Amino acid sequence: MASILKLLLRVMTMRAEILAGVGRRRRWTDEQKLQILAEVGIDGASMADGARRHDVARQHLFQWCI
C-alpha cells in the first residue's frame, strides 16, 4: 500500500515541459502537400486516414485543398 502511495505522489509531482514559439511548427513544401493529398482516395483512404498516416491535423489537409 505504501509503495502505491509513493508512486502516486511521484506521478503527481512530475513536471511537464511545454514547447512554445515557432520552433515547434512544421513546414510543408508544396510537393509534400501534394504527395499527402494524392494519397487520399487511394484504396478508399479518407482525409482522416491520410492525416493520421502523416501525423498532420485533418484541418491542414482541408486547407491545402483550397
Give a brief description.
By secondary structure, the chain is mainly α. Helix content is 56%, strand content 0%.
- As a whole number of angstroms, the C-alpha radius of gyration is 20 Å
How would a crystallographer describe the biggest sheet? none
Mean of all residue-level pLDDT scores: 80
- Class of secondary structure makeup: mainly alpha
User: Count of DSSP E strands?
Assistant: 0
- Contiguous low-pLDDT stretches (5 residues minimum) are none
Organism: Asaia krungthepensis NRIC 0535
Protein name: Transposase
Topology:
Layout: H1 2-12, H2 30-39, H3 47-54, H4 58-65
What does this protein look like?
The protein has helices at residues 2-12, 30-39, 47-54, 58-65. It is mostly helical. The chain has one domain (2-65): Arc Repressor Mutant, subunit A, CATH 1.10.10. The radius of gyration is 20 Å and the shape is elongated.
Characteristic terms for this protein:
single chain, 66 residues, mainly alpha, Arc Repressor Mutant, subunit A, 4 helices, 56% helix, Transposase, Transposase_8, Trp_repressor/repl_initiator, WH-like_DNA-bd_sf
